[in-house]
Amino acid sequence: MATDLALASDGSPPVENEEQFWKELAAIFSRDCAGSHESIDDALRAWLYLVASCRELYLVTEDDVASCSQLLVDSRTFCQNRDYVRTQIIYSLLQEDEAGPIHAIANFMLLDGRSDEAAFRRMMDEGCFPRLVGLINGTRDNDRRLHRLLLELVYEMSRIERVRPEDLALVTDDFVTYMFQVIESLSDDVDDPYHYPVIRVLLVLNEQYMVASTTAAVDPASAEEAPLLTNRIIKVLSLRGPDFRTFGENIILLLNRETETSLQLLILKLLYLLFTTKATYEYFYTNDLHVLLDVIVRNLLDLPNESTSLRHTYLRVLYPLLAHTQLSRPPHYKREEINRMLWILGGADNTHFAPADETTVRLVDRVSKVEWLSRQEAHVEGEVARKLVGISLSESQTASSVSVVDVAAVMEKPGVKTPSRKDDQPGADALKDGIQGTSGDAPPLRAEAATVAVAAKPKKIRPEVPKHRHGKLLTPLPSPSAPANGSGHGNSVVPNGGGATQPQKKIPPKAPPPRRGTRLRQAASAGNLRGPESTPVS
């Protein structure tokens, strides 16, 4: 039956309904292929044809296509012949031109690579990266579902495996410009699912350029063999930054929301290059820089002590952000909050943070020397104190000559979530007054503010406020059935002799005092509630 399915090519669907489709798909891998390459090829052709021809009919969502791929992954055909099946699928991707089969192949490759990173390594070795870039260019206008899937596959491959320099050289300015234009065209809907894959591909391409350039700087021998690469992400933003500012707004929003460490690092690496490249110093709007600074300050204070690499990367981005962008010009934004954060991160007289490591101290000292962060008189007094006491750091300790290499080298396994100081210290309070200030533009995010572990104070129990009526305290007189200190009005409780209490019968309230200067005689008993008799009016 598999051969019959493969030979059907009249354009009509090979099945009559969705139920029959899933039965036929399961039947393809129900029989044992006995390790024969010919029988494996027949099964793969049947699977590919059936999925491709029914994609528009019964596979409406990407999850439906993924279910078809999962059947192949779980089959004995794949489990017993993993390498051969991957080879055939990869060769089909390199040769296929029809959108339907490419969609089925790309979905399977994405599912297989996410479960086994060796599959992505095999794809890179076989030259799938330039093929996928070409397919993205070819499908960008006629098949949006497939285009998005190809973007996802490029992103997942590139963040797991290093792209070969000769393959990375095939990425053109036109391709990068087109990606930025896609983001601009979707600027009215930041929640559009198409936004996310495009942005992530640009971020991972930037990381690949950084790794390639730093590798060439560290290992000159490899630079002689590899082609000279230009970071086309930075190049396009340097030449046409004002045309593509929606991308900048989105990566700040993404950093604001993101909890995955690897994606935060991708964003920080691009920000570092933007703030250290003169042509892109002012790529962002000033208001966006304010939001970005709030996010960085909050995340720095929220990171637990063990997240040293991520903390160092944030600090390396913070220095050029404060020194090179519009934030360096008055009115200076949140100067006191930044100084207080640096004071805390440096470990100065702080019991809530562990002692800072040497790199953190060096980076904090570097940021603190941004000219506008401290007033001139404080700077002069600090210099005098350091000379007298002898506490100072040398130029080599404060310099950051290898920051680019360090930023490019920081990696994290995909899927790892960034821990929060709140996770380790549940009783910590937010430093809203001391760090975030009272401005209303601080973004509400994963950690609303930086947290510090403080001893929780017991809540003070306030005494009950006594009830009043007409401005006078209610002090009912004792009655034979109630103790002298009874509450009088309301549902008072009276001991019944056995330790339990029972509600006392309600007593009518006193009449309000008359509006005259003479003082009425107080009632002699609880039953005498009427005022003095008055002469009736006839």
From TrEMBL:
It comes from the Eukaryota. GO terms for cellular component: actin cortical patch. Residues 447-456 have a biased composition (Low complexity). GO terms for molecular function: Arp2/3 complex binding. This is SPIN90/Ldb17 leucine-rich domain-containing protein. Residues 415-538 are annotated as: Disordered. One of its GO terms (biological process) is actin cortical patch assembly. Residues 191-338 form the SPIN90/Ldb17 leucine-rich domain. InterPro entries: SPIN90/Ldb17, SPIN90/Ldb17_LRD.
